[in-house]
Amino acid sequence: MEQYVIKGGNPLVGEVEIGGAKNAALAILSAAVMTDETVTIENVPNVRDTNVLLNAIEEIGARVERLDAHTVRINGSFIRDFNVDNEFIRKIRASYYLIGALLGKYKRAEVALPGGCNIGGRPIDLHMKGFRALGADVDIKYGLVRAYAEKLTGTHIYLDKVSVGATINIMMAASMAEGKTIIENAAKEPHVVDVANFLNSMGANIRGAGTDVIRIVGVEKLHATEYSIIPDQIEAGTFMLAAAATKGDVTVKNVIPKHLEAISAKLLEIGCEVEEFDDAVRVVASKPLRHTQVTTLPYPGFPTDMQPQMTVVLGVAQGTSTVTESIFENRFKYVDELTRMGASIKVESNIAIISGVDQYTGARVNAPDLRAGAALVIAGLGAEGITVVDDIYYIERGYEAFDQKLSLLGALIEKVSDEKEIQKFTLKVS
Ligand SMILES: CC(=O)N[C@H]1[C@@H](OP(=O)(O)OP(=O)(O)OC[C@H]2O[C@@H](n3ccc(=O)[nH]c3=O)[C@H](O)[C@@H]2O)O[C@H](CO)[C@@H](O)[C@@H]1O
Ligand SMILES: C=C(OP(=O)(O)O)C(=O)O
Known about the structure:
- It is found in: Cytoplasm.
- GO terms for molecular function: UDP-N-acetylglucosamine 1-carboxyvinyltransferase activity.
- Keywords: Cell cycle, Cell division, Cell shape, Cell wall biogenesis/degradation, Cytoplasm, Peptidoglycan synthesis, Pyruvate, Transferase.
- This is UDP-N-acetylglucosamine 1-carboxyvinyltransferase.
- The chain is of the alpha/beta class.
- The chain folds into two domains: 3-19 and 231-429, Enolpyruvate transferase domain (UDP-n-acetylglucosamine1-carboxyvinyl-transferase, Chain), CATH 3.65.10.10; 22-228, UDP-n-acetylglucosamine1-carboxyvinyl-transferase, Chain.
- It contains 14 helices and 24 strands.
- The chain has a four-stranded mixed beta sheet with strand order 22-23-1-24, sandwiched between helices. Strands 2-15-17-16 form a four-stranded mixed beta sheet. A four-stranded mixed beta sheet has the order 4-5-3-14, covered by helices on one side.
- The radius of gyration is 22 Å and the shape is globular.
- Phosphoenolpyruvate binds next to helix 11.
């Protein structure tokens, strides 16, 4: 098991390049098997989740060629197996996209029940409701979600809850249904729009992505395309908040500033300077941070995937802040770990009440999930002394070269794999 070991206290300064969006990539790589022609996808983040998904796509017969670290060519015409299940795919959430993709193209799919970060109950009832409305028989048996259809027929679907996964999954299947589908109360996240743009570039007919009503006219066939994935809103936000927590000055490059508005607005409120350029955002934290209130909401609200990082920043802001988690009921598990670093946070139901402290102190902590893991790294970067973050496996699900990008900004951080290496690092930096 690998760890990050961090000597905190250095302000992060400089420029960082953001990669392609993990949560867009996972859907787009799945959708790429919906044509028999060859699809080339650029700006694919080279992270654990995308690699697990690509291996699963290969296992069912698709040809997958990695042209370079971030470019993948996929040909789905060789798929003969519709059963997607291995120990790795069971652990990722986005395996559910292969249900929509295979059901749309082949009218059948058997995919391991999705895993993903343990941040609360994560049902897929809305996905199943959508597939059933399109005419599929869907059940869960033997650990698999199984969906079959003679044919899919366009329909009108109202999502009881705003769900990114269900919106994208239904959109994929409906792209190859007969007739018109309307999804109401659809998710509006940037990656929903990116997946719609990708499918349209393959010949799908999707309108309205980015609003809460998406209209899809099914087509018989999809075709080859070349597509570049949008920048990762959450990776970008993580570096913006790392700048704030370390009192740094970081320019986050290759981003779409509009996607970061909810994060920029909170940074301005707590006293940071935020400068927007065409495809970059600069965050300068030269004054003491002030308290604020944050509530996670579907886009364009404050993203739940930025909640732990924001809590870490508010933990060293003056006064009392609150963070309300309205999407997932169990996303404060990291607070106990942060308390070991000196944070003063009380969680009541879905609200964290945060009394700001002057500075965190280094400690040995566990990453309980992907974003909480990144948040603990941020805490370590701002802390006095040495922090060791265990279980960085989770962080590597969604951040490419996290330690290297932070090092380039002046952080003292190393990836290590045993106690000796931790001691060596500690001696080196003290
Ligand atoms: C791989 C991926 O892209 N993961 C993202 C996706 O997860 P995911 O697709 O799982 O999240 P959803 O948007 O679907 O979940 C939103 C809410 O709806 C509920 N729900 C969802 C589906 C369903 O069938 N029934 C149901 O009740 C969930 O429990 C949750 O409370 O969007 C989340 C919300 O932005 C992000 O935190 C995750 O990073
Ligand atoms: C929760 C996340 O991922 P997943 O849905 O794949 O668990 C995330 O990206 O923050």
